[in-house]
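Listing S7. Sequence submitted for prediction.
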Amino acid sequence: MSQKNQSLSTHQVDEPSRTEPLGEQFEVKHVRSASLPYRILRKAGRSLWFLFKNTAYLAFILCAVVLLFLGLDKLAEFALKKTYLAHVYTEDFSMAKRDFTQPRTHYDYELRPGVSIVHNQSKGNRFEYANNAGFRDPRPISVEKPADEFRIFLTGGSTAFGLGASGEAAPLTDFYGIEYRETISYVLERILNVTAPIPGKTIKVYNTAVWGHAYQHHLFRYVSKLRRYKPDIVVSLDGVNEIHPMAAPDDDWDYFKQGQYNGVLREILDYNGPGLASYLTLWLKNNTYLMTLIWQGADFFQGLEAARWAHKGALAMEESQQQAPKHSREQRKRMITDNAFTIVRIVENYHSVLENDGVPHIIALQPLLYLSKKPRHAIEQKVEALNENRGYYDVQSDHVYKYLVERILERAQEKRFFVADFSEYFDDTSEWVFTDWCHLTAGANYLIAKELANFIKEHFLKQPLSGWDQIDEKNSFFWHPVSTAEVVYAPPAETAETKPQNMLTPYPAMAEYASRELAPTDKLEVVLDLKHKFTLNRARLVWGDESSVPNEWVIETSLDGETWTPWARGDKTQTDNFSWWPGFEYYTTNSAQARYVKYKPLNTETSRIRLRALSVSR
């Protein structure tokens, strides 16, 4: 019993010793099981903190980069405002960031409304801006045509636009530019309003041309945009922009993929790598001052285009001299024939669309230096020696253009639509016509405008041509008689720097003729001897400033310097702002045969004369 009790007692004593480790083990397992969510939360917290910390760091870096970029952009804006652009965009400086052109999916591209398209100040002209529709015209245009307006559109490429000298020829011509009043559109408007006025209406000719545009652009742009403005007549002056696509040695040739900027746009719309890179580059250029400063205000769209289009022809031509030709002579001949046929059909389609809209249409084919047989002016000799765009790929540009002109003329005769062929128009002209391989001088623009005015007057306005409309001696329209004139009389100059000879220039300049204050008995007039007899139909006056413009004035002419005839009159309400200073331009059918020219202020409160330019011409 005692043993049993002892045994029991021993068991009871030993039991805790056996169960204690079990309890400890159970308690340890319980603690480990409870710490798992804690560890998960702790790990998640650490991950979230790491993510937050790195996100915040990246956000800080990103913000720092953005702020740095914005700071640099602000500095670039400040730097740009110290350049000529501050004088160009006085109202909306953000336009300084914009390219001259902007993409248009229907017809490649066009001028950006409000952009400054002419900076050349060598002629004393103001900056020029594209109007609200993107036309080269200082006047805004409404979609709804006023009842008293007869509306003419001049479409075309850079020659119709009035580009002046381009490429390597620009330095040779001292960067010769065409100001607005020297464009074909402006001259055409002035001539028609003088020689063929329409009762109750004002004739307005808008320059809707865009450099680089070809007939495919004219067709699509008219259908998608220009027809909304309801033009009464459309004149299309173009041709040489067809040479490159027509000459392309492409087995898979497609005219509508040969557009000037089509390659850039096609890549962008395809969302491929080069396209997205191009789009990003264009976006940065057009939305930041920094990129504008880096590219020095250049049109980057044209830069992208140049690598894809403009220089391919010349490069391929050079390569063709070193490598075996890819196509045989017969294959190339067939290619060019087929390509020309396609372009001619587009010209015909363009005309048909206008005809269906009831809009009279003139297709004008522009001149080409290499095709012209004219005696070369000294400047044209230097330009021709450059051989710019002389050939494309393995063919000569004059041969290609001549072939295209012949095909267009043939089709026009078959389908009976109007073509004004200027391709060899200046063959009998020895004066300076070509500023480069295809662009024209102001004198050449005047003659083309005069011929187009005759065409419109006779065929569309049904008015007979007069003696003034005749063009007998083309060279005489280029002359500036005042350049070699002698000042017979002018009131004494105020200083030696303001001498009368300062006004004997075709274009106004900072140097002016300023007379001293005159006594009541002194003659307030200027008399010039032109040295020879000239036929005069145009005059231009540019004064020193607004205060020097007389209330009225008269220009008189004479053959002998004794008998004077009033020829041109004007008043203070007729001044224009084409130059930096007030000016007056006179066109008339009342031709004057004159050797002497006299300018006289009338009804003026001032007793002195200040003129920057006094110019007369045929």
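Caption to Listing S7: primary sequence and predicted structure tokens for the chain studied. The chain has 16 helices and 18 strands. The first helix runs from residue 2 to 80.
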